[in-house]
Design brief:
The chain is mostly helical. The protein is 55% helix and 1% strand.
Length: 436
Amino acid sequence: MHLRRRFILRVLFSFIFFCSSLIAVSQDNAPEEVVRGYQLFESKCLQCHTIPGGGNSTGPDLLGVTEKRSVEWLKSWIWDNKAFRETGDKDAIAIFKEWNGAAMNTFPEITEPQMENLLAYLAQPELIQQESTAVAVELSEEEEEGFSYINLLIIFIIFLVIVSLLISLKNSLKESLSEKTESMFQTVFNFVRVNRNMFVIGFIGFILMLRVVFNTLMGIGVYEGYQPDQPIEFSHKVHAGDHGIDCNYCHTSARNSKTASVPSVNLCMNCHVEIREGTNTGTKEIQKIYDAIGWDPDLDKGKGGYIENYDQKPIEWIRVHQLPDLTYFNHSQHVNVAGLECQQCHGAVEDKTVGQIAYSEELNEIQQNIDQGIEFNHPTLTMGWCIDCHRQKEIDMEGNDYYADMHKKIKSDPRYKDKKITPAMIGGMECGKCHY
């Protein structure tokens, strides 16, 4: 029993150590204190400050801060900026007023050695930043390879746990019969020696079964191609394709709101007061609009009119694009700031009927995505799908005032000269940007 426990502990320790080595960012060229300082910066500071040189965020850009301020001043400010301001320090008070009285968190839990590490990183952020940038831009292929290794390790650990449980059960039965028990190693060795072919076949079958289960679980929440029947057989092809109606005419808030709204019945009536027969469905589907809002096309000698005291009924459209509650997405930011066209995320909507979640293969054939070098390798509306774009979409910094200050600093930074600047390089991969 003791041999079995020691064996399991060794395997688990090896697994944890190997996984840690897989996901650790390569920072071999940076001094240890700089690496530790970077790790502390990520956990304590990155929520409000960009990587030094990334421009102002909730708090100021910290590039060169160790040259502007003394070590003792920075320590006092970071540990308890409120108490530091109360001492009457003019610089501390000036910064507080410059940022409109936005209170910075206090960090009394940071120890003296940790503070030294943090300041070492702030003094030489380029030692980490260059490596982090390389990881952000080039990680996709390495991540896929590492992901496969982790999958195999997880499968192996699950297999060992199941075998351990079965052996424990067998030994419990043997003890109840006053028979000699066996360690895990002895049991496996004896089984393989006697049943080699059965062991090989069983192990392969077990791996295949786990693979099927894994693929099934990974498919949860993936809804590519989802195209539910709607209460009205609305056709995007007729409206946006044949008649060339701009998407923004119906989805009025796409450019100025977090969500692209579903058009109200009043908006439909702007056209359908006069257009009373559809291209494909005649009067059948348009009559559903009239029934919802209370419009009778036969009133006033065929001119039509609203029915008095009519009990209006909203059209109960079925939502197609639905992100998890933990995800923050701002539609207007992607349309206005990133300059994305509707088709780059939704596919050739002008060729479709009711709304549909586009397939990633379809999006890879959209000309704007091809021109901008965007290729999706993950299912639509999954986290990997968003990351694909953030790693490949080049930021247009000319005439883009949304991040004007950040863009100005990036363009003047020699480290970014002649480089393709992507959202991933300016914070587009930070967890807090997309998750509450």
